[in-house]
Amino acid sequence: MKKIVLRNILIVSAIFIVAFSIMLITNYFQVRGATPLQTEVVETLKELNDTNANNPALQEQIRQLDLLARKAYFVRMDHLMAGVYILLGMLAVFIICSRFYFARDKDIPDKAIDPIDEWAIKTQARKYVIWGASGLAAVALVFVILSSPYLRPSQTGEQHKETEHVSLAQEDVTYEVIAETPAPVPTETEEDTPAEETLPIAPETETTETPVAEAAPQPAVSKVTHNAFRGNHSNGISSAKSIPVKWDLKSGTNILWRQEIPRKGYNSPVIHGNRVFFSGADEQARELYCYDLNTGEKLWSLAATNIPGSPAQVPKTTEDTGLAASTVATNGNQVCAIFATGDLICADRDGKQLWAKNLGVPENHYGYASSLLIFGNVLIVQYDNQNAPKVAAFDLATGTERWSKNRTEKVTWSSPIIATVGSSPQLVLMGNPAITGYNPNNGEQLWRVECLSGEVASSACSANGIIFGASEYAKLVAINGADGSLLWESTEYLPEVSSPVATKDNLYLATSYGVVASFDTQTGELRKEHELNTEFYSSPVIAEGRIYLFSNDGKMYIFSANDEFNLIDSFETGERTFATPAFTDGKIVVRTEQSIYCVIANGDGVSL
Amino acid sequence: MKQNDENRNSPIARRKFLRIVGSAVAGGSILAVTGGLVYKAKGRQASHYWQIDPQKCTQCGRCETHCVLPVSAVKCIHANKVCGYCDLCGGYYRSNVKELNTAAENLMCPTGAIARKYVEDPYFEYTIDEDLCNGCGKCVKGCSSFGNGSLYLQIKRDLCKDCNECKIATVCASGAITRVPLDFAYKLKD
Amino acid sequence: MKKILTSISLLLPTLAAAQNRFPKPDFESGYQYPDISYPVPDETLWVTLDLILLVVLMSIVAWAVIKKRTRKPILWVSVVSVAYFGFYRSGCVCSIGSIQNIALALVDNTYVLPLSVFLFFMLPIVFAFLFGRVFCAGVCPFGALQELVNIKNYRLPKALTAVLGMIPWLYLIFALLYAVTRSSFIICRFDPFIGIFRLGGDLGLIIFGGLLLLAAVFTGRPFCRFICPYGALLSLFSRVSIWKVELTKKPCINCELCHNACPVDAIRAPYDNKVKESRPMGVRRIANYFILLPLIIAVGAFLLQSVSGDLSRVHKDVKLYDLVVQNETDPQDILSVELEAFYGQGGTIEELTQRYNAVQADFRLYAAIAGALIGLVIGLTLINLSLKRSRKQYAIDQAACVACAKCFSYCPQNKIKPTNLIRK
After folding, report:
1. Which residues contact C358 (CB under 8 A, 6 or more apart)?
2. Cβ of B85 under 8 Å from any chain C Cβ?
3. Are residues C230 and C125 located together in one domain of the fold?
């Protein structure tokens, strides 16, 4: 009788345990994917609320959902624990009952399993051991073969090369586009250099067949970007085509659109796709703007507010520097801006703030002016100031600091550039007293040449692995990027604010007292000079084989970017201009003292 | 060997001899290991407890999900003496917050474990309700990127099981979790 | 006034430290900082209790097996052990896992071994050396749990168990390899029962533990026999233990009754050793294996050292190195949290490469040793399986016996106790 009761309890509890375990496990798998505290619905709603404030219905919905999620989270915790305790209790019942039920059962000898002959067992076991051991050895051997150096390098080596090539090609779209330029400009030397190496000698290259050229010969949105101050990699070279050569604000000739700038600033516009980015600031607000390239319509603006650590009072800056002298940087997906308050903000292309931080107010007697630069997925900030000069790289997505290197250069107004030496990128920073090359991936210092003095505002440029830097009251130097050796130096003409630009053969620079000069990049010999009796703060940019240069009073000078270095044309544009213009296919975006405008090429713009 | 030869014909004696040798080896090895370890550990404090180094922690969020306990033994700890008592607290509010109130759409903590109390203009006191905290580290990330870093994650000694191998430590992205001696069982900021 | 002060002080210290962006507030309302303390619970009491209980329980088992020759106390020890060491203390640090701490402490000077861990490791070994594997009998919560759920004792073919019995050794060797290279404590990571004792944890392991328990219902102690590395270690000592577990104090009458009682197959039947094979041939086989032994060891060492690169992937630095190298050759837009932490901490490839190379060197050395040990285990197993032993009576294999005392009640000789006779 007792035995029957026990047996029934056993059966019931066994069924219960199995069923309950299966339930718990399936439940686990069901809920594992959906942790209530991280439901996407609430997150997206919250994000919606961020961009679209003052929507009570939406807010109410968020609150309800949030409450629901929290409830679900804690209730589930309780239920799970309760379930486990029930299971454990039933298990205990099962075990106790089984002990009593089977208490009298004894294990009786059972010879059928093994032959009684121990030797036979051992013989068989030996066989199994040998099989097992050889199995293990075989598995190990497979691993050995798979990871053998003879098999691997050939495969991965190739992949290696391929990815390297692809990444290079992606990163430097400009270079490829340069290569595919139909070359309407006079070509002197017919050289057939590989695409990656034709850094600034673009117009001299013959059309090379690249996949990009085949896939999209004439994209609707120009692929030519102008991602930072003085173009991609801040090098003063643009690969844009069909660039306007004549315009006038007064008569509106070739002006696509013109907008008054909301807040002033000496930073330059940048272009990516159909968007123009720049920033502006005054005592009231520091703002990042996005305008449509085709219509001039203001798409969005983002104010740098609510940033912890941001000073209550803006630091003192001089009239000719201001709070927004630093040019923004973009990669199309993110755009970052920095202000003289030390506020660094990063937004996505639609103006949603991704992150923001204050780097500490930079102590700078004119105002912080170094522009930003994006390399890969990091934002590089040259933060030379009186207190704690450093160069730092921040993760574009999150704003976390990837690396940071202290610098000895105190206050600098110069901007970082990326130079390509061999096939590897170098981050080049100028300052008093040195020009320094860093590895942009980790901030490791590659070389350092002490050659500057005074207040350094001009930035470096590079061509063909040579880095050029110059500053007023110091000298013009050419540095071999491979080893940091000084190739030559000159003191003939030195820029003060404007930065030089170089091709493989020639270096061009504009001084603040009106002289524009060209030098031989190999020897440093002065090739040609133009006395223009004006002031240059804006930097020259080479595009389509021409050098575009604004004087402070708003006159545009166009030179030929070759050994002749002829002044092709010069004309008044109408407004005082200090910023460097941004170039894309068929368009130039110019920021003047009061406005930002876009110049478009008319039909015959190409033939000059 | 000689002994072996002598006993060749008496397997029992040989086994006995082998057993004595075996016992001696076993006993000897016990003593040797004990002695070696005692000598090595002498005068040093044993490292036994797992703890997070807040300086290294990157708030990857794995503390919440990888602890062997149903609710992680990692909790957020608030160092009042480091705190700036800000009105706009990066740990309490989401970024881009529009209004500084307690509405759900403005708050960072997914479980509502941070309580905020007005102290005096412009200061607010923040406290953590440990029972609600699940160690996700969202507030820590907010506080360390926007504030003083007074919120940080620690393994609560009274909750931690002190697993021989801490599961979070094996997945910790920054290697911030290490064994520490009892005297340093917490790495507190203040 | 205050505002100005605030803004001034804001300007100054912000650059000095990334932390402390905001100054310490200057409370005017007499606000006091709340006094929050984080006490560290005093574990010494518990640990002392653990150790006392460990010794007491092992002593009870030893007394029950060697002296009293009865199973009942062991059953109660099992219940106490499962309840206390298992469910209440949640099983850490256990003796099985402590192997790794000992190994780590022996090679790593920076790691200081807690005394309690040392005792958890050494006490069962000392007891095994004195009385056999009394720890396994019921003091180990894992063994106790399997013992408690066991109903039937279906036996597996002996040839199979002989092979499966090598797994604990391999597991032990790999556990040591990963412990001394500071990679991972795999015994703890893949502990099948800890999730059950803690009522939560990795689901995969809990299911594995559940299946093991299910198997334990029908066959004796699968974990102890085919997985437990500490059991393998203890078997070395129980083999030469001073007091041994005996089937019966009286002469065996070869009744066979005990043969199937043993849950771990530790009772060997009498064998008259009438092998058809000639003696010289057997001797030659043994001699061959002895000659082969160094070769097997060398092959094992070579093979495992060759795969040391793959084995080392468990190590965190190696994983990180692979990630970083991959990222350096092909930079990703969105970094994994590991990479973010690495770059965020200002880690450099050079320093990481150094660490990586050190780990690789470690692995090359220890993997070779581990491979040699595996070869040794395989070779010795083969030699052991080639030995011909005659036996006149049923006898206990001291290495495998877990001192559960089940067999005692099967032996008719044990029943004829003087007291029983008198009562009858």
Report:
1. none
2. yes
3. yes
